[in-house]
Write a structure and sequence with these properties.
By secondary structure, this protein is of the alpha/beta class. It folds into 4 domains: 127 residues, Response regulator (Rossmann fold, 3-Layer(aba) Sandwich); 176 residues, Rossmann fold; 74 residues, Helicase, Ruva Protein, domain 3 (Orthogonal Bundle); 67 residues, Arc Repressor Mutant, subunit A (Orthogonal Bundle), CATH 1.10.10.60. Helix content is 47%, strand content 13%. The protein contains 20 helices and 16 strands. The strands form 5 sheets. Strands 2-1-3-4-5 form a 5-stranded parallel β-sheet, with helices on both faces. The relative contact order is 0.08.
């Protein structure tokens, strides 16, 4: 397949530039070469490149590749840069990382190593650009806290954009740590009620006896301890939005009263005989599957229909592995700058561990893990031991690899790929990251061994069942 990416290779050794041009051109990349800092600088000023591979030592500049790296980042911050050198040092590697290099590789290098690095660098650039394009398309500052360029997240962005300025009730469904509150924030702050209060309450955090009083308010003498009138959350949200987090935990006896408020748009404080107007937009969230909650007698079916005019299902992180690299880069940059840590990035084994982890705590777990790793890393890169995912033996239990005896190398390779695809639930990008190969090579091996990809198999099964 013809690739559109433009790559600039800068090195004063003709053997290097010629071999890289041949190697990358055979993969379909559009390659230009330069033999000096001056020629490389002229090239980046003449046109933009998706990726620059530059030697550290260039003949006409005392800082060579580092000067070119800084020039590239100044002119085009989203262009990725891989620095190549025959005389590497930790100081130079750190300096390259601080200046924005994607990777620092020493000569001599293998063709597969370069192809893998190029593939990963361009993949990161594509994901970052897709996320930025969606933010520019939406043109809402409040969306900036939601990170994700996967198809699932793109659909959520489009849904938010479509419904934000309406008053429709919204139910956000997703596991703990998936970012349900961020989505609720985006809906409110892009609505016509954005200049009014956004009042939030967690239904599972309040005692059963207090939640009605907190929600509706109460009058003096309504119960023991009610020494004065108190405004409830519904009244506080007047003109704005009210978020009921974990609505599946709301007491059953309170649910009919909330339903009545939503139908009549009026409410009565506890102990009062007077009713008041209820003017708020309702946004609910739950980490329980609503249908299961209804079956278990935890939620009224009529209330579910009332609060879920629009439902937004937030996928768990393990089902949006495409966003792992983007989220990891985001949190790494955020905490590296926050704590002023001179870190260069992740080791390959650390990245593989990030992609192989199941992330039961979702984005919140990833954020906490990266923050801890940034704080505790002892070298210039984050290593697997810096990542608090529990013992590796526990992680490996469900997906441990076993090669039966008397298998050929090709049979073992097929088995490894099949088990890796199973572990990533058919996500080829994540599987390629774990296996340490670039995606086109994984695709060719899938075709070679006629491997059934798990996710694709499920889709075909569903299609056949509906036929």
């Amino acid at each position: 397949m013809k690739k559109e990416e433009k790559i600039l290779v800068v090195d004063d050794e003709n053997s290097i530039t010629d071999s890289l041009r041949l190697l990358l051109s055979m993969e379909g990349y559009n390659v230009e070469i330069a033999s000096s800092y001056t020629a490389g600088r002229a090239a980046i000023e003449r046109q933009s490149f998706d990726l620059v591979l530059t030697d550290l030592q260039l003949p006409d500049d005392h800082q060579g590749g580092l000067s070119l790296l800084r020039a590239v980042k100044e002119r085009s911050p989203d262009t990725e840069v891989i620095v190549i050198t025959g005389h590497g040092s930790i100081t130079e590697a750190v300096e390259a990382g601080k200046s924005g290099a994607f990777y620092f590789v020493e000569k001599p290098f293998e063709a597969d190593q370069i192809l893998l690095l190029v593939s990963k660098a361009l993949e990161r650039r594509r994901l970052v650009n897709e996320s930025e394009n969606f933010r520019r398309h939406i043109q809402r500052r409040e969306y900036s806290s939601i990170i994700g360029a996967s198809k699932a997240m793109q659909m959520i962005y489009e849904t938010i954009e479509s419904i934000a300025r309406s008053d429709a009730n919204v139910l956000v469904i997703g596991e703990s740590g998936t970012g349900k509150e961020l989505i609720a924030n985006a809906i409110h702050f892009n609505s016509l009620r954005a200049d009014k209060d956004f009042v939030k309450v967690n239904c599972s955090a309040l005692p059963k006896e207090l939640i009605e009083a907190e929600l509706f308010g109460y009058v003096k003498g309504a119960f023991t301890g009610a020494i004065q009138n108190r405004q409830g959350l519904i009244a506080q949200a007047k003109g704005g939005s009210l978020m009921l987090d974990e609505i599946g935990e709301m007491p059953m006896e309170l649910q009919p009263k909330l339903l009545r408020v939503l139908e009549e748009r009026r409410f009565r404080p506890v102990g009062s005989t007077e009713t008041f107007e209820a003017d708020f937009r309702l946004i609910c969230a739950t980490n329980r599957e609503p249908r299961e909650a209804i079956k278990e007698g935890m939620m009224r079916e009529d209330l579910f229909y009332r609060v879920s005019t629009i439902s937004i299902n937030v996928p768990p992180l393990r089902e949006r592995a495409e966003d792992l690299q983007l989220l990891t880069d985001h949190f790494f940059t955020k905490f590296k700058e926050k704590y002023s840590r001179p870190l260069q990035g992740f080791s390959q084994s650390a990245i593989q561990r990030v992609f192989s982890h199941r992330w039961p705590g979702n984005v919140r777990e990833l954020q906490n893990a990266i923050e801890r790793a940034v704080l505790l890393a002892k070298g210039n890169r984050i290593e697997p031991e810096d990542l608090p995912f529990g013992s590796q033996s526990q992680e490996a239990t469900a997906d441990s690899f076993f090669a039966p005896p008397n298998m050929t190398l090709e049979e073992i390779e097929k088995l490894v790929i099949e088990q890796t695809l199973k572990r990533t639930q058919g996500n080829k990008q994540a599987a390629a990251q774990i296996l340490g190969i670039y995606r086109p090579r994984l695709y060719s091996k899938i075709r070679k061994y006629k491997i059934q990809v798990p996710r694709e198999s499920r889709k075909r099964a569903k299609k056949g069942a509906g036929a």
